[in-house]
Amino acid sequence: MSKIINIKIMTEKLNRSTSDSSIESKLNDRRIKENELIDRALERDESAYSEIIRLYKGKVAATVYSILGRDYVEEISHEAFIRAFNSIRNYRRDSSFYTYLIRITVNLCRDEIRRKQIKRIFNFTEVFNKSDDNDAQEQIQTGTSSDPINIYDAGETINIVREEMQNLPSILRVAVTLREIDELSYNEIAKLLNISVGTAKTRVFRARQILRDKLTERLSYGK
Amino acid sequence: MENSCHYSVYVDSFVHGELEESRPCRDFENHLATCNECKEEIKAVSQVKEALINSYSMQLDETFNYHVLNTLRKGKHFEERKEIRIAVEDIIISFATLLAVVLLGIQLFHNPKVSSVEMAGRLTNIEKSSLEQSSLSKDQVLELVLRSK
């Protein structure tokens, strides 16, 4: 039972977040702020570039980490920002700059997968390497997990998720990353991957189902 | 386990805050009060989302910003605007020079009253000796004389 989140608390939390009337205005504020930053970046204002990096580097890093693995995070994230900035005059504002940046990041990741033919067979030394283990421990110690009862499970869950994500076919891994980590809509995912909305949904649902089954199976087995 | 409830199509959008204050959201919230299947589905989707976010949560430090900006500086990214301004100035100067040459040419070649031969007859002795001593061609000297007169 310790693994089960209290549904009542969670539903209330979700209701609060979805019924909040300020959501739309916050999104608009974010879009306005982003547009201002882009205007300044087009004027070659260095502080605007710095601000854009500060805003989005976490998401870009998480995307690379999820799709390729930790070893690629700095190199690919760096390249993604450089490409986005160098082609900033080609950015047409038909989507947010964030989506534009994520598109570049995902394309770089896909190139990397093709180029190096990364094998999805992930061995335990990679999954449980020191740095990743430290991350999990750090999250446990700093209480990043929302459920204090599941302190031990949080670290274990992280390791399982990382391992099972690497076992997923890359098309599912990319789709679920875009949905859950980058928080893009299905329309944006479809456009970004050049697939239909239906296919995008199918890939995300399939990936989520696999992860869910594996988590349940392995956490139950570990008990 | 498959969720057979027809409201389950809203679960994903609900968890991702995409229903907001729409009619389906209110209906779905009312529905949740009675449907355990959908509650379980919400829990499962939320758990996977949270697990993924926690698993890949990562912050790049300030040196990352420095490296990106430094690469842009090395590529003269921030000087591009200055270069554009210089290029525009160059174009304007080139155009003005070309225009001046064309106008001068028109003036020279469309003056039927004065020909090179006629001008040669009008040269003073001093001009003739200058012509002989200079390295300029006859036409160049004639042009100078024409302009001075």
Task: Provide an overview of this structure.
The complex is a heterodimer of chains A (223) and B (149). Chain A has 223 residues and is an all-alpha fold. Chain A has a domain at 24-119: RNA polymerase sigma factor, region 2, helix turn helix motif (Rna Polymerase Sigma Factor, Chain: A, Orthogonal Bundle), CATH 1.10.1740. Chain A has helices at 7-19, 22-42, 46-67, 73-86, 97-116, 124-127, 130-142, 151-167, 170-181, 186-193, 197-222. In chain A, helix 3 (46-67) crosses helix 9 (170-181) and helix 7 (130-142) packs antiparallel against helix 8 (151-167). Chain A is globular. The N and C termini of chain A lie close together (11 Å). The model of chain A is unreliable at 1-21 and 120-152 (pLDDT under 50). Chain B is mainly alpha-helical and 149 residues long. Chain B folds into 2 domains: 6-56, Arc Repressor Mutant, subunit A (Orthogonal Bundle); 79-148, no CATH class. Chain B has helices at 11-15, 23-32, 36-56, 62-74, 80-109, 116-122, 125-133, 138-148. The radius of gyration of chain B is 42 Å and the shape is rod-shaped. The model of chain B has no long low-confidence stretch (mean pLDDT 78). At the A-B interface, helix 1, helix 3, helix 4, helix 8 and helix 9 of A face helix 1, helix 2, helix 3 and helix 4 of B.
- CATH H level, superfamily name of one domain in chain A: RNA polymerase sigma factor, region 2, helix turn helix motif
Number of strands of chain A: 0
Q: Compute the CA-based radius of gyration of chain A.
A: 19 Å
Overall mean confidence score, pLDDT of chain B: 78
**What spatial form of chain B do the alpha-carbon principal axes imply?**
rod-shaped
